[in-house]
Each structure stands twice: as structure tokens, then as C-alpha cells.
Amino acid sequence: MIYQGESIRVDFVEPGFAELTFDAAGSVNKFDQKTLEEFSDALTKLAALSDLKGVIVTSAKPTFIVGADITEFLQLFANPELTKDWVAKASRVFDQLEDLPVPTVGAVKGFALGGGCEALLACDYRVADPTATIGLPEVKLGLIPGFGGTMRLPRVIGPDNALEWITTGKNNSAEDAMKVGVVDAVVAPEKLTEAALNLAKAAAAGEQDWKAKRAPKLAPLAANDTELLMSLTTAKGMVAAKAGKHYPAPHKAIEAIENGAREAREGALKAENAAFFDLTQTDACQAQVGIFLADQLVKSKSKKRAKTASKEIKHAAVLGAGIMGGGIAYQSAYKGVPVVMKDIRQDALDLGMKEAGKILEKAVKRGKADNKKVVKVLSSITPTLLNEAVKDVDIVVEAVVENPKVKGSVLAEIEQVVSDDAIITSNTSTISITELAKNLKHPEKFCGMHFFNPVHKMPLVEIIRGEKTSDETVAAVVAYALKLGKTPIVVNDCPGFLVNRVLFPYLAGFAEMLKEGVDFVAIDKVMEKQFGWPMGPAYLSDVVGIDTADHCTKVMAEGFPTRMPRDEANAVAQLANAERYGQKNGKGFYDYGTDKKGRTTKDAAEKAYQLTGSQPGKTIDADEIIARCMIPMVNEVVRCLEEGIVDTAAEADIAMLYGLGFPPFRGGPFRYLETMGLEKFIELADRYRDLGEIYHVTDGLREMAKSGKSYLAPSAK
């Protein structure tokens, strides 16, 4: 044995040829600080061997290396000097691999992402099996490659391809990686190690010029000035259009490549180190790393819950074939759970099947499905007018009109049809699950299952626990949501649950500005362009449906009469009374139509100005617009955490990201609050205190600020 560590071992596989194997104690290999130290020690041992002829780099896991250990990042980045030192030292470990005096071959299977990809790039040759997925996804964390990726990749595959890989952060198949030159060969899984060893032998025997293969990575970028300028200009234009000003990482990636292009390896690495460090100190990086960690927490909790379920969902039913019901039925069938779609009208069933067909047609055009998949999905949806057709299902998702009496009647009726151990859920967006459960004989087998529209695109499902919902029911429904490819977050019952409860104070803050005559277009522009929402509050109201939003204000007013009172003069109520329901009937705050190419058009509606009191062109300071919308939202999400509606701040942030499209570079409402600083937020909120209770900070938040605690600390609830 040449070297044995906790995550790495090195030994000769044949005289003169060593195998460096990554085999961490956990389920995957990753570059935590300990593994990087071992990697350096192992390479030092190899470099000292006089009889070494070649090295292959392999993994004992089903996957190669998933990247750096992101759980270490936030604590590390909080210490700037330590971060500078770490990135400089860590990136030079990969130089040790590249500088071995013998040919090196990486053998990749499964994921080789981030640092895993960078380890491969430090090898002279790379072979892969068809399972390999290779990429540099660091921009999705608000970072750039930090172990030499911005230096090596352009020298291996050229600046055009490298800039695309790095600025988009996309994952690439083995075949696609071979097309651009990241991988030299793709072989059958059982031949992967043998192929790597044979290539190392051929190089050692002089049959392959491994020194010539390595040389470009040690030198300045070979591209001429014109080629480099064109590549950089194109990349800058693409990044400006797609990432915009809120996401600095892809811009910094281009900067690192540009600054290092005319430098040899050490100079190019210094350019990368500097850009990487700059990003570690940005709010966007903190937010995006925080999202990753929060997402991991949510996934872990969901998997643990799902494992406790004793009932497996193999057959489902959806009641109501409207937009939501049809979308849920499609998603269930697409993910392999056959579904009965039940409605009282044949035309609704026809529309539901037509919508499923449309979604599949688009999937085929994008290469996400083939005709075989289309047939399988459509044949897995059984449209019916008969209650009897649902008698053998494991779960029912009720998705009828948002009316407690109608829902109560439908739920009671269907309970008489299904088996005693069937689970019944309601896709309600605001109505109390505890109240709806009063219509049922077995409330313990009932919970909320709130999907978001469009169902096939939106990742979140709120699982709402009523007062009598059993743990077993929650576990089974979480498992079903995971089967559907969704991110389930379990919340406790209250009007609006989590996402809609938090949304309506935000919309109330918006509505008050309209009363003062502020232009709704100006508000949308600020909230989209400056704050970063995908849709401003007026546009969002149109997309949700003005009638739906108006109904929800009544439910919220009943639940929180002093904080969210019903206002008949409110803009949404006025538009609803005028039957301007938003996108669903083509008129709301905006008028909707289609242009000559069939694309949706959106124009500020003169009628909306007349009804709401909003005045074209009238605006106020952008910071005030942001404050008046966001303070009520943050206050309400804090209340939800304090009341136990949601378990953790991390889950609340993910819910808002996946359910409403909260700007990822801000990380969610709690990350936004912490980035601003609790004391600064309180000071800002107190300035608007006279506008109403939604601007009043809780005593709990004031206490958190006074004691210097963090909502996002691991020890926080």
C-alpha cells in the first residue's frame, strides 16, 4: 500500500502503475478539507516513487466525486483571510496531480461535478462510462470553479465551449463531454478501469504523447486575440441577457478567464483565486449556498418521513378536471402512478385530457419524451364521471372549486366510496384543513395537499396537517409527493397555510400604494427589475387569478381580522367586481392578447387604472416600494415560524422560493432578513408602523435582534 487515508487509498495495480482511489466513508466522495489534505499527501507519496510509470484515478463509489463539501462553505467564507488561504492552497493540490512525472488517466462514472470535474481536468487523459455526468455547476451557488477549472477547461476544449460550460453551470453526458474533448473515450462500465490502465500503459510506452497533451494546460491560452475577443464578447452578451445584474458569478467567471488567458498556469490560477474569493464575500453567494443547504435539509426530512410510511401509493384519483386537477392527474401519470380523473362534466374531462396532451406535445418537442412515453402517460389517466371508478385507489386528491361547502360535500361523498384505509387530501389554497376534516368520519386519514400552478413546472407541494391528521397519513402523502418529483414541505393548519398566508400581506402592502395613486406598472417594474421577483404584484395577481385572490382575501380576513381585514375598496375587489379576472379571461391589471407570432402580449389596462385609483406615471422612491411590499411579507413569515406553522426558517425559505419564485440571489425571506440585519429591518419596519398591523414587528423578532441570535443558525428551531 502506497498510501491509506480515510477517503483515499493508493496502491500498485501492476508493477509501475498505481491506482489512486477515492472511497469516502459516506455515500459519495466529496472534497472536504480533510480529503483535500489526504489528496495532497497521497500525491506527494506518488511523486516520490522512483519506479512509478503511470497513475489512474478512480472511485470505489457508484459516482466519481460530487464536488466540494458545501456544508463547510458558509462558516469558511465568514473568515475572509482563512478563505483566501484555503482557496490558494486547495487549488495547488490539483497542480500536484498535474505535475506528476508520469502519465495520468482519470476514470469517471456517475457524477464528476465541480471539484470532481476539476480533478479530471488535472489528469492528462480521461475515460468515462455511459453513466458519467460531468460539469462545473458552481455558478448555481454564486461561485466559480475554485480548483483550477477556469484555467484548465479553456485550454482543454477552447474558450467558446469552456465559457458556455462554466457560465451556465450545465451538466453534460459522457458522449457530449467526449464531443468537445473533455473526455477522450467512452467505454462500457465493466471495462472502465481496464481502459484507463491500458491508456496509462500506452502513454508510458510512448504510444501516446502525454507530455504534449499536458503542455497546453501549463501555458497561456492558445487562442489568438481575435478568437478570444469574440468568445469573451459573445459570452458577456449571453450572461448579461440571462443572468442580469443580480447574479455576479457568471460575470466573474468570464473575468477570471479573461484575466488569466495570457498567463501561464500560475498566473491564471491567481486570477481564478481572486475572482473566487471576491464572490465568497457577496450576498448572492451566501444566499445561493444557503439555498443549497436548505434544500438538502428539506430533502433529508422528506426522505426520513417517507421511509416511515407503511402505506405505498400505487393508484391515485383526482376529483375535478380543471386546470389544477388536470395538472395533478398528468403529473401522477407522468411519474408512473396511474390516476383516475373524476369530474361531473364530460367537457371538463375532455379539457383535462387535452391539456395533458398539450404538455406532452411540448415535452416531445424539447426531447424530454417520446411517442412511447406519450401513449403510456395518456393511457395511465382514466377519465370518468362515475364515483365508483375511484373505489380501489390508495389516495384521493380533491381539486374542486375553492368553496368550503362544495369541498365538504365532495369529500364526504367520496369517503363513502373509497376503502377504509384510503387517504383523502384536499388541494385547497386557503381553507382550513381542520374545518374540512369535520365532514369526514376518518379525519386522521385526511390532510391538505396544496399544489401550485402550473403543476408540472412548480416544484413545491405544501402538505398541511390538520388537528387530527395522523403521522402515518403525513408520511404516506410526503412519499407520494416525492414520487411525483415534488418538494414536499409539511406545515400546520391555519388560514392560507404558509405560502398564501405570507403572500397576502405583501399584496396588501401593494394595494395600499395603489390607493395613494402609485402606478401599478411602476411597482411591478421595481419589484421585478430591482428586487428580482419573476413577476411584480399586479402581474402575479393576474396570473393567480383576480377572482381567486379576491376570495382568498375573505378567508384571510376571517382568520386574521385585525391584521388582514377585508377592504371592499381594495384594487383586487374592484377588479373582481368588474369581472376582470386576470389572464384566465384576458383582462385584469393588464389586458392580454397575442401578437402575429402567437406570443402573449401584456398591456397596462386603462380600465384597471380607473377602477383601482392607480395613476399612470405616478411613482415613489424604489426603496419605499420595496419596503412597503416586503416588510409585511417578512413579518408574516416570522409569525409563521413563531407559531409553529413551519418547523424551520430554512423550510420557509425553500417554500417561498419554490412556491412563489422568491429571488434566489436573495435566498428566501429569512435570508433576506438576515442579510439586511435584524436591527436594520426593525428600524425600517418601525418607520412604516402607522400604515397598519402588517408592518408591526413581533416581540420575538425584537428579542432575536437584541440577543444577537440568527434564524438560520443550525441550532435555531
UniProtKB/TrEMBL annotation:
Organism: Idiomarina tyrosinivorans
UniProt key word Lyase: yes
EC number(s) recorded for this UniProt protein: 4.2.1.17
Coiled coil region boundaries: none
Signal peptide: none
InterPro entries, alphabetized: 3-OHacyl-CoA_DH_CS, 3-OHacyl-CoA_DH_NAD-bd, 3HC_DH_C, 6-PGluconate_DH-like_C_sf, ClpP/crotonase-like_dom_sf, Enoyl-CoA_hydra/iso, FA_oxidation_alpha_subunit, FadB
NCBIfam families: FadB, PRK11730.1
UniProt domain 3-hydroxyacyl-CoA dehydrogenase NAD binding: residue ranges: 316-494
Sample GO molecular function, one term: delta(3)-delta(2)-enoyl-CoA isomerase activity
Name of the protein: enoyl-CoA hydratase
Gene Ontology CC: fatty acid beta-oxidation multienzyme complex
Pfam annotation, one family: 3HCDH_N
Keyword field: Fatty acid metabolism, Isomerase, Lipid degradation, Lipid metabolism, Lyase, Multifunctional enzyme, NAD, Oxidoreductase
Domain 3-hydroxyacyl-CoA dehydrogenase C-terminal: 496-592, 625-708
GO BP annotations listed: fatty acid beta-oxidation
Keyword set includes Isomerase: yes
Reaction equation(s) it catalyzes: a (3S)-3-hydroxyacyl-CoA + NAD(+) = a 3-oxoacyl-CoA + NADH + H(+)
Membership in a protein family: In the N-terminal section; belongs to the enoyl-CoA hydratase/isomerase family.
Pathway: Lipid metabolism; fatty acid beta-oxidation
